[in-house]
Write a structure and sequence with these properties.
heterodimer; A: alpha+beta; 5-stranded mixed β-sheet; two-stranded antiparallel sheet; 18% helix; B: 162 residues; alpha/beta; two-stranded parallel ribbon; binds iron/sulfur cluster
Chain lengths: 176, 162
């Protein structure tokens, strides 16, 4: 079992690039921020280093940070430009009984990161959901397509804060 | 009851008109497409179970839409599901009936405003005969809905226009 500080030290000494690894505190949780280009390498390191052994991805979820510039439209809805979307990875070592939260932030206008499904198999569907709901693109994902909404859905990414219902889907009226 | 009350005193003769007889037969064996979507389906299953006993009205779940008379839309109709529902409905032979069970299939229910994935009422894709309100409706309410449907069938006519 390793403490958060020990894991952070290990990561910092192995990934020396600037801004690759940093830590922050959100609410009661300590979080390690990873840059999008490094997430796969960091995950591999965490999963395969003997005394870290993070063998399980508990969940992966995407969040709209809503920190861009908000522009009010005529119909009271908002448009957001700039800011970030974030992905949280909750990982655990079942064997060594320690947990960790990773966070990757990508730009709203260019939400591209790298898939970790080659490290943890279950990330496959989680990433498809993040793509489906928030619109994050995971490079190197084996099968990145919508998972909950219909494959031919063109109405956008519904969990973004500036989402607006399309008028019609396949001839069916969408708004109430 | 359509024709039993017109029974004559002689044992084995019953006088009725053909229409009443046909309607009585039809309304007494409404077979239901075995089909449930969301939480309302649990309540529909409870209605079918021994305590409420849908069977006493002749409602039998039939696992093929091609041999069913009624489809109970019991739950949230998502857009993905709506196209399937339409397809199942089109496979049913005429005359066919639709009971919309619960707020979701009546009008979108709790998802009416923020349900980006929910069709706001199944009547946007197929015609509905009886609406049963509630979230979910109790089994008694669904039974009431069925009685309403029976009433509708009883008053149908082959000759007079409705
Ligand atoms: S009406 Fe209520 S109980 Fe029925 S499917 Fe909708 S949410 Fe569930």
């Amino acid at each position: 079992m390793k403490s958060f500080e020990e894991i952070l030290e290990l990561l910092k000494s192995n990934f020396s690039g600037e801004n690759d690894i940093s830590s922050s505190k959100e609410g009661t949780e300590d979080i390690i921020n990873v840059s999008p280009s490094m997430i796969k390498e960091v995950s591999k390191f965490l999963a395969q280093t003997g005394d870290l052994n993070f063998d399980s991805l508990i969940l992966l979820s995407a969040v709209d940070d809503e920190n861009g510039e908000k522009i009010k439209q005529e119909d009271e809805s908002i448009d957001i430009t700039g800011g970030t979307l974030s992905i949280y990875y909750h990982i655990e070592s079942v064997k060594l009984v320690h947990k960790l939260i990773l966070k990757v932030s990508v730009e709203r206008e260019n939400p591209v990161t790298i898939s970790v499904s080659s490290v943890w198999g279950c990330a496959n569907w989680h990433e498809r959901e993040a793509f489906d709901m928030i619109g994050i693109i995971f490079n190197e994902h084996p099968d990145l397509k919508r998972i909950l909404l219909p494959y031919d859905w063109e109405g956008g990414y519904p969990l973004r804060k500036d989402y607006r219902n399309p008028e019609f889907y396949n001839g069916m009226k969408v708004p109430y | 009851m359509g024709f039993l009350d017109k029974e004559f005193t002689q044992d084995n003769i019953v006088v009725t008109n053909l229409e009443a007889l046909l309607n009585w037969a039809r309304l007494s064996s409404i077979w239901q497409t075995t089909f449930g979507i969301a939480c309302c389906a649990i309540e529909m299953m409870a209605t079918s179970a021994s305590h409420y006993d849908f069977d006493r009205f002749g409602v039998i779940p039939r696992p093929s839409p091609r041999q069913a008379d009624v489809i109970i839309i019991s739950g949230t109709v998502t857009f993905k599901m709506a196209t399937r529902i339409k397809r199942i409905y089109e496979q049913m032979p005429d005359p066919k009936f639709v009971i919309s069970m619960g707020s979701c299939s009546n009008c979108g229910g709790p998802y009416w405003e923020h349900g980006y994935h929910v069709l706001k009422g199944v009547d946007r894709v197929i015609p509905v005969d009886v609406y049963v309100p509630g979230c979910p409706p109790r089994p008694e309410a669904l039974l009431e809905g069925l009685l309403k449907l029976q009433e509708k069938i009883r008053n149908e006519s082959m000759i007079k226009s409705a």
